[in-house]
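Example record

One chain of 569 residues, shown exactly as stored in the release files.
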Amino acid sequence: MADIFLNISLIIGIAFLVSFLMRILKQPLIIGYIFTGIIAGPYFLNLLEKESTIGVFAKMGVALLLFTVGLHLNPKVIKEIGKSSVILGVGQVIFTSAVGFLIAKALGFSSLTSFYVSIALTFGSTIVVMKLLSDKGEISSVYGKISTGLLIIQDLIAAIILFTISSSSGVDTTASLVFSTIIKGVIILGLLLLVSIFVLPKITKFAAKSQEFLFIFSLTWAFAIASLFQFIDFSLEIGALLAGVALSVSPYSSEISSKLKPLRDFFIIIFFVIVGSQIAISDVGSNIFSIIILSLFVLIVNPLIVMSLVGILGYTKRTGFMVGITVAQISEFSIIIVALGVTVGYLSSEILSIITMVGLITIAGSSYLITYSDKIYPFFSRYLGVFERRNVKNEKKKILDSYDTILFGYNRIGFSILKSFKAVSNRYVVVDYDPEIVSNLKKFRIPVIYGDVYDSELLRELPLRKSKLIVSTIPSVEANLLLIKTVKEINPKAIVIVRAHHIDDAMNLYKEGADYVLTPHFLGGEYVANMIKGFGLSSTNYKGEKEKHIKLLDERKRLGQDGPDVEKN
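Predicted structure tokens for this chain:
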């Protein structure tokens, strides 16, 4: 026991040091955990000799991970994520797995192995993508919402695949056994449904009165259902996932998830450490060509598939690009599915080594792609027109002769701004790159142009020379800088109002020529809407307000205040 404790302590210490390096390199910590496993494995320190005991910790980590994933898979969620995400998610899984299967077969893998490999290459990492989008403040942007919906659909499909694998894990595949397995599955799912509807709400309501009691109940429920599924010859992984889904309809699901997160993170470290330790250096060396080809498929081909589907759905090429690079990695689900395939005897450990290495390469690569997507896009934008539907291109060209006022971005703030536009002029137009928003505005007969402020060609096609007031409610500093530069170059007399959430960003926008910067954290959209109504289209009136605002921001900065990271829509 003392040896095991010492080994775990050493493993955690190594994980900390490697994770510290990952933080410096701006990489997800999951990569650090896998590298920790390689260091702690048989090729170096060999700290995992007593793997049976440490392996229990790993199983607990997988169970808790899938349980918390299940907590976010509310059956009602499909209604909320939108038709586009459902079509995109299902289409992406079908096309990626089909192409991945053909590539795996071409690399010489058997049909069963190729199937597992193609599935592993299909799913993006919800944990990695959500963390990176959250860091950028892009979760609520149009592409962020589409990416989130896509990942949710992937998780649902992965759950079905896990259930399928676990239900066929026995050696005996006679018709009677398959039939009995299906019957057991249907019965247990029916019982779970009944319990989640009639029993769990009362228990969780009572348990929620005490935070500690809610925590211990959640653990009990997760491990009990996972153990039950393992007992009836399914996998504990699918049991833990369904235990989470059963609780997902509870009003306390988010609280349960936040309570379990620290415990989950500790045990999941052990899981990925063990996965790393199982990477055979010889397997990597002998399969380096396959690893490179599969990694390039995930990093390049998978995003191209998604970009094509996003374009077909009617979104701009920039939205397609941004969504595409969010799937340029494989997920923890991929590794779990392959590990389960190894456990039930369908795959060799060599395949786990290959997929884990693909995971390391693609997670590392996509992290940089997502983080610096705004800077990368301009280099490729001219070549991405093929991913835009022809009617989208034509829609962007349906531009009238002139407008007095132009609004970029119809969101919550934009709603107030648009009302003020109507008060000062009847010659106004909205520019937005969300097809659903464009469609809704058209229904209400509001003049709207489908386009992206990042599209410099669109900006130059707009009648900016005759416009008097241009407002952007888009919080992207890069987009607003491009807008200010373009407008001031074409029409120096135009009033330009843009949006920022940090004082330094606001001051930078003022320096580049903005006539006013909307800072929702200090002065909201209603304030600017009333200002527009009062000042009208005379540029002189805005100068005094600009000077007052700069003084306010300077004072706030001296007091150490700044705007928060907020949603970008």
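Notes: Residues 565-569 have pLDDT under 50 and may be disordered.
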